[in-house]
Structure formats: structure tokens, C-alpha cells
Amino acid sequence: MNIALLLHWWWWKSNENWFTWLQKELNRKYLDVYTPNLPNTNNPILEEQLDYLTVYSSDFNEWWYIISHSLWWQLAMKFIEENQIKNSIIIMVAPSYPWLTSDLWEKVFWDNYKYLENYFNTKLDFDYINTLNNNYYILLSDNDPFINQEKAKKYYKQLKKVEFIEFQNMWHFNSQDWVFRLDEILNYIK
Predict the structure, then answer these.
(1) Based on CB atoms within 10 Å of each CB, which residue in 4, 84, 90, 160 is the most buried?
(2) 166-176 pLDDT, tens per residue?
(3) Model-level pTM?
């Protein structure tokens, strides 16, 4: 059985942005789709969200699709690492990277960035993750106000099987930027 896990964006819910469209498309491909509303999305605590996802870990076999947006790449990667998710397709849309907090602090003065620092700086064992034989697809936009393409690429080149897909004028890939669907994701769903 093929299963997809969709991890929505920080502050949002699973039925917002392009996630509703994607869930319908994946259901048409006869996939079981999990779209949990993660707890405490305004001030996320990684351990709390990992605990919340443990209900899904028993369903994992060796062929999953995990699709995450923005900040939730840390959650997706830690979930993959801790649950030994292998031989799967991992799609990350506008994923953040560890030193992003300091970059954003200069641009955005939201109080809750201090809460996100630990989330952003999650330690990952890339040597181990690379043994799991997953394929990673990373979607980046040239005018994303939060994610710098070059910094993201530098970080994600630590993944052995990674492909970068570059877009123009897609901003941060959300409905505020008039992005309500991402047909390109379907190219990686077999």
C-alpha cells in the first residue's frame, strides 16, 4: 500500500494552501493520505510534534511519500531518521535550513522566532539518513522572501540522492502568493 504524509506549513492547517488540492490528487492515485493538523503550530516544539506523529509510524512500510512545506522539513527529516523510513520519496517545498533564524531575525521581528531557534537548529545524522535510500526533491523559488536558494542548496547537498527543482516567482509557495496547486509535485508521485 502506498501512503502519503503531508505536513502543512507553520501557522497553517492541513486544509489550507495547496494541501487540499494535493490530497485530492493523491487520493485519485489511490494513495492513503494522512494530513494531520499538527499541535501548537504557532510556537512548535519538535518533540511534541514527533510524538503526535508516532501514531503514523506503525503504518510505515518501505514505500512512502512525505511532503512537507517550509519549517516542517525538520519534522519530516527527524521523523524519517527516528522511524528508519527508507526507499521513499521525500518532497520538501521551500524548506528552511539551520541558520535561517538569524537571517529572518533581520527581516521579520516576530516574537515567536525566539521559540523557533531550537526547531531550526535540529541536529540530523545525514550519514545515517543517507543509508535509508530515500529520494529527495526540493522545490525552491527564486523570489522566496524567507528561503535563500543558494543557502538551502548548500545545506541539502548533504543528502546523497537530492534533486533541486527551481521555480520563478512562486514566492513561498502559499495561497497568500496565489499558489493554490503545485502540479510539479505529481511528477514525483509514481
Answers:
(1) 90
(2) 999 998 888 67
(3) 0.89
